[in-house]
Task: inverse folding
């Protein structure tokens, strides 16, 4: 029986890369392929379903699918194996965007950029999750590349939202939402500037920063200093890591989703916001335009007072709001889970049966 094993740097509940590996594993097994997930770092809750990569026992006809986003010892290990290799490229954040984050994160990004070209001659197929990311593969001379958008399970949209949090956030205040780890490339400080100007219009508005602070380092402390300087201590909520039910509650109660990130390889929260019917305003950087298509509102520059007025318009002008949401609903059809899994299965079948 043919085996397609997957390798991820870190396996953590709720992590988008691990979520994709899990749903890909289910698809591979539907194709009657043996498939296990191996990882370098494994959350304690996943130790029964994910295996440390150094316990992998290579077989000559194995196919290895490596989810690539950060350089690590796992990269070195896989480069040294002769098995057929597939690369799932999730982007490596350029190190200069990670100044202020924990040093290990920046070191991993530096190694990730440095090592990527080494995989080109070893890889039978490299699947980027956006057209933006594919450009990295082409620049590194990968011989065969394709674009397959990030695949995520539908659990978030079917889970019952956390009742206590739902009630807490449904108090009539405007909720500006951003979902993503606390990291310099996400530019959460620009969201704080936006909130400052928006509260000149709507003094009770708040900003919900939903995401883990693992790896944030000094940047997390910097954000709290900025919030204090702007007098926003009680207007900003840092959630830290949240459960699926809590994340659903944040989306259900969001007034507008605002993304001012300056580097994204795909940006799954944009898709999630569109699926939840939350109007999106996003800075048109890196992969954001290709993810949004013609949906939502894309910004070409960051003018915070103008952005505040735009957000207010999206909240108060119901005709405009409904029009934006309708366009987003049409756009998310391109990311339907079943359709993307079907594309994935076709690529795998093509590799296994050349």
Result:
């Amino acid at each position: 029986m043919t085996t397609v094993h997957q390798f991820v740097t870190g396996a953590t509940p709720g992590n988008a890369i691990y979520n994709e590996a899990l749903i890909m594993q289910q698809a591979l097994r539907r194709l009657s392929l043996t498939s296990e997930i191996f990882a370098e770092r494994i959350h304690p809750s996943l130790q029964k379903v994910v295996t440390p990569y150094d316990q992998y026992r290579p077989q000559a006809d194995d196919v290895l699918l490596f989810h690539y986003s950060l350089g690590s010892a796992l990269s070195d290990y896989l480069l040294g194996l002769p098995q057929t290799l597939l690369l799932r490229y999730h982007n490596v954040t350029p190190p200069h965007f990670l100044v202020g984050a924990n040093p290990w994160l920046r070191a991993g990004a530096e190694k990730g950029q440095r090592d990527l070209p080494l995989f080109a001659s070893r890889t039978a197929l490299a699947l980027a999750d956006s057209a933006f990311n594919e450009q990295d593969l082409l620049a590194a001379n990968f011989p065969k590349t394709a674009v397959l958008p990030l695949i995520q399970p539908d659990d978030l949209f079917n889970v019952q939202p956390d009742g206590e949090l739902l009630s807490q956030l449904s108090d009539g205040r405007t909720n500006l939402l951003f979902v993503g780890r606390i990291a310099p490339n996400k530019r959460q400080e620009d969201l704080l500037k936006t909130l400052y100007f928006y509260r000149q219009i709507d003094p009770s508005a708040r900003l919900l920063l939903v995401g883990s602070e693992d790896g944030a380092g000094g940047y997390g402390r910097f954000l709290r200093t900025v919030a204090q300087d702007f007098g926003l201590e009680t207007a900003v909520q840092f959630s830290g890591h949240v459960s699926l039910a809590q994340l659903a509650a944040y989306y259900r109660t969001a007034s507008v989703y605002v993304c001012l990130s300056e580097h994204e390889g795909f940006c799954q929260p944009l898709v999630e916001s569109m699926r939840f019917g939350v109007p999106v305003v996003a800075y048109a950087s890196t992969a954001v335009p290709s993810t949004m298509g013609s949906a939502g509102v894309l910004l070409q520059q960051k003018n915070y007072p103008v952005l505040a007025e735009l957000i207010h318009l999206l909240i108060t002008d119901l005709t405009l709001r409904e029009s934006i949401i309708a366009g987003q609903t049409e756009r998310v059809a391109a990311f339907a889970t079943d359709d993307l899994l079907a594309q994935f299965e076709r690529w795998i079948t093509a590799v296994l049966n050349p």
